[in-house]
Amino acid sequence: QVQLVESGGRLVQDGDSLRISCAASGRLFSSYGMSWFRQAPGKEREFVAGVDFSGRNTGYADSVKGRFTISRDNARNTVYLQMNSLKPEDTAVYLCAATRLSKGSRNLADFGAWGPGTQVTVSS
């Protein structure tokens, strides 16, 4: 099973950009579909963005489409989330997750490996 650790979260201003990363260890990272989820206080965990094993196919939640970009570097075992035009409502803990479904998924139940998360706070 793959192990995941996120990094790069911090306090930013409304309208700023930020890139967060997810470093993976373990075998066969390049075969996993990868996604970013987020969870705000008092709210359920929600899908943000996903990428298939190859990096060629991506998907986004409507709330971030056009502002966020997910990518992966299989040579570095790393997944990225580039976040532009950040808003206060983007404030949450961002979690990286891996699924054995190589095409990826938006369904929490499909993900067997999770990182501990990284806090992103957007102030107005």
List the SSEs and their pairings:
Layout lengths: L2 E5 L3 E3 L4 E8 L7 E7 L6 E6 L6 E3 L7 E6 L4 E6 L8 E8 L13 E2 L3 E6 L1
Parallel strand pairs: 2-11
Antiparallel strand pairs: 1-3, 3-8, 4-5, 4-9, 5-6, 7-8, 9-10, 9-11
Give a quick precis of the structure.
This protein has strands spanning 3-7, 11-13, 18-25, 33-39, 46-51, 58-60, 68-73, 78-83, 92-99, 113-114, 118-123. The chain has 124 residues and is mainly beta.
Features:
single chain; mainly beta; four-stranded antiparallel sheet; 124 residues; seven-stranded mixed sheet
Radius of gyration: 13 Å
Low-pLDDT sequence parts: none
Helix content: under 10%
Shape: globular
**Terminal-residue CA separation:** 40 Å
Structural class given helices, strands, pairing? mainly beta
Tally of helical runs: 0
SSE series:
EEEEEEEEEEE
| Mean pLDDT over the full residue set | 97
In what range is the share of β-strand residues? over 45%
Main β-sheet description: 7 strands, mixed
Instruction: Write down how many β-strands occur, each being a DSSP E stretch of 2 or more residues.
Output: 11
